[in-house]
Amino acid sequence: MCGIVAATARREVSEILLEGLRRLEYRGYDSAGMALIDNEQHLQLHRQLGKVAELERAQAMTPHHGCVGIAHTRWATHGEPSAANAHPHISHDRVALVHNGIIENHATLRAELRERGYEFNSQTDTEVVVHLLHTYLVAGDSLLDALKSTAARLEGAYAIAAIDAQNPDEVVATRAGSPLVVGVGIGENFLASDQMALRQVTDRFIFLEEGDTVRITATELSIWDEAGQLVERPRTDVPDAVESVELGDFEHYMLKEIYEQPRALAATLGAEGEKRIEDARFGEGAGAIFDRVQSVQIVACGTSYHAGLVARYWLEELAGIPCEVEVASEFRYRKRAPHPGTLLVTVSQSGETADTLAALRGQMADEFVASLVIANVDHSSLVRESDLVFLTRAGAEVGVASTKAFTTQLVAFLMLTAVLGRRHALGEAAERELLNALHRLPDMVQETLSRDADIKKLSEQFILKQHALFLGRGIQYPIALEGALKLKEISYIHAEAYPAGELKHGPLALVDAEMPVVAVAPGDELLEKLKSNLEEVRSRGGELYVFADRNAGFTDEPRVHVLQMPSCPEVLKPAIYTVALQLLAYHVAVQKGTDVDKPRNLAKSVTVE
Ligand code: G6P
């Protein structure tokens, strides 16, 4: 993961770099650093363990100045989080470099460089890159050529940006497997891992392609492709962000984003009153592609994977289309038998997740009819490389635990169910019913949010627990998985989800008074079976927390705590129960005092394997 920002201007850039890092902190936050070239052509370096705020403090105490600089916020892969392992890494006080990704042949390169007399001050894979770059510079290469020669020796995935105190006007960078965007200014130019980092200074961007190398000065900007040809890449003018990434009155981004869901869902749905969902919502030529689709393969990671698991029920039950769902890190390495007529659907909030991207890129020739991505970030790699695109309109999601991105992905999948379903098992009336139900979703979520105080009260019972079990049946099983994931991510309580029918095949052995059991009981056709499963828990002394449809017949009794949920159409239940479980996890984490928006060891965008 990690976030990169770089700037070359005629003005002081330290504040631009720091603001960029603040906006990139979702990519990693265990250490941060910044290198500037000052007026005397010296490198000025700050590196701090901890969040970007620590780097800001260091810069405030000992201000460094410069019009050219690079900065980095880190999520450790090689080497523990520490100031010594933080980027930028430097070689001979001359060249400084930041890196996002993993260099797989770092051990071989380190041995070679050691033999040539280079000393290593960190445990990172990155430090080999800066020393290698230095070898070419001292051999007389320009900074650009030195970077190209360095990149040719690297195996792995990376985005790299470098500066050289002896070439004090320029920044060079290259990408292979990790994102990098150029921000085009007026008399100044920038680079970053994500355009969001640069929105404060420009709205004009050039998204680099795989293998591109770029050189920027305050007034010049040149790009070379993988083959070394000078190329023109299209410039994209991105209008002002639709919504701010300010916290407003909320204590945490996660809570803000949970509360933004009614608006995000409505924006993703689009105008009310539409009679049908047009194929074109999925991109140009979608209709002709959908006509050929006989089955669907969904691939994703984390919370996005859970959205895919929910979608399988809709695609099979409502649309009548066979559907497989797999985590990207498994899918990409599995030897697969081709499924003729299958649509590959990747799902990703960020559009940059390394395994999901590799799954898309690794498809065999003719394996799929086409690829569709459901993503929240426009211009991201998955968006640019997929045949069809559905953009969720969740707006920027800052909290590491995904909330509004997930529920908007569910909306996208219901819309996909409609467009594919009308070609298969979904009749006209059923499609209309689905659409009408969908437009009620923002209000139903709003109503669920009004249960916040009750959920907070329930959450108090979890604070001292070490473990929790989540149960669901049918389409609510993936919701139980998502509820457990939310709780473990941000409260560090070990949480597992099981399909309730599996209870007696193992997890029941864990049930005692110390193990809270959360059940998602929406009152569908599996309700009676779920009730028997819950009795099994109760009769073993377990404490039950049941999120139940208010018509499902659950009431509070000793060791059974019921949170009455609004009644709503079946297709909306996965989303509204998720919202309730998001609030549960949030309140448990707040009371435990964890860092809700930036939980330990995690990052929002996982751009390494
Ligand atoms: C990380 C995030 C999760 C997210 C997952 C997949 O693990 O912390 O919140 O669900 O990556 O990310 P994506 O951007 O592909 O949805």
Describe this structure in words.
The protein has 609 residues and is an alpha/beta fold. The strands form four sheets. The protein has an eight-stranded antiparallel sheet, covered by helices on one side. The longest helix is centred in the last third of the chain and has 22 residues, at 428-449. The structure holds 6-O-phosphono-alpha-D-glucopyranose (G6P).
Q: Tags for this entry?
A:
8-stranded antiparallel β-sheet, 7-stranded antiparallel β-sheet, alpha/beta, 609 residues, binds 6-O-phosphono-alpha-D-glucopyranose, Rossmann fold, 18 helices, single chain, Glutamine Phosphoribosylpyrophosphate, subunit 1, domain 1
Write the layout of secondary structure elements.
Layout: E1 3-8, H1 14-24, E2 31-37, E3 43-49, H2 52-61, E4 68-74, E5 89-91, E6 95-103, H3 106-115, H4 126-138, H5 143-153, E7 156-164, E8 171-176, E9 181-184, E10 189-192, E11 204-207, E12 213-216, E13 221-224, E14 230-231, E15 236-237, H6 253-259, H7 261-269, H8 286-291, E16 295-300, H9 302-317, E17 323-327, H10 328-331, E18 342-348, H11 354-361, E19 370-375, H12 381-385, E20 388-391, H13 404-421, H14 428-449, H15 452-459, E21 467-472, H16 476-491, E22 494-499, E23 516-521, H17 527-538, E24 543-549, E25 560-565, H18 573-592
Parallel strand pairs: 16-17, 16-18, 18-19, 19-20, 21-22, 21-23, 23-24, 24-25
Antiparallel strand pairs: 1-4, 1-10, 2-3, 2-4, 5-6, 6-7, 7-8, 8-12, 9-10, 9-11, 11-15, 12-13, 13-14
Helix pairs in contact: 3-4, 4-5, 7-13, 7-14, 9-13, 9-16, 13-14, 14-18, 15-18, 16-18
Bound molecules: 6-O-phosphono-alpha-D-glucopyranose (G6P).
